[in-house]
Design a protein that fits this description.
Layout (H helix, E strand, L loop, with lengths): L2 H19 L3 E9 L2 E9 L2 E11 L12 H17 L8 E10 L6 E5 L4
Length: 119
């Protein structure tokens, strides 16, 4: 795994812990199909959460959350539909798309920000 891949994996590990600490159950990580990949699929009460994780080193040009474009959101919606088709349909609480942005400083603890229902 290269440095970029390791950084992304580190951010996804932090995000999974953040979601679990918030009371969610992680159902899948790095779920893939032909259309793309969902970083984390979780259950929050009776809602399904499709979570995109973006990780950047401190000092990067943009905040990690700025990297989620309308095109990416559309892809996440399509991926959520495929997941639901393969896993029994929509849950009673519906589906939500969340985003976790992780900034890793040169020194000190990383900062993770969780935005619920971004799309």
């Amino acid at each position: 795994m290269n440095a970029r891949g390791a950084l992304g994996r580190y951010g996804e590990d932090l995000a999974a812990r953040l979601l679990t600490d918030a009371g969610m159950a992680v159902l899948a990580r790095n779920w893939r199909c032909r259309t793309g990949e969902i970083d984390i699929v979780a259950k929050d009460g009776d809602a399904l959460v499709v979570c995109e994780v973006k990780t950047r080193r401190a000092g990067a040009f943009e905040h990690p959350m700025a990297a989620v474009t309308p095109v990416k959101v559309d892809r996440l919606r399509r991926l959520a539909e495929i997941w639901l088709d393969l896993n029994g349909g929509p849950p009673p609480g519906g589906v939500r798309i969340d985003l976790v942005g992780v900034v890793v400083p040169r020194r000190g603890a990383p900062v993770a920000e969780h935005a619920r229902g971004v799309a």
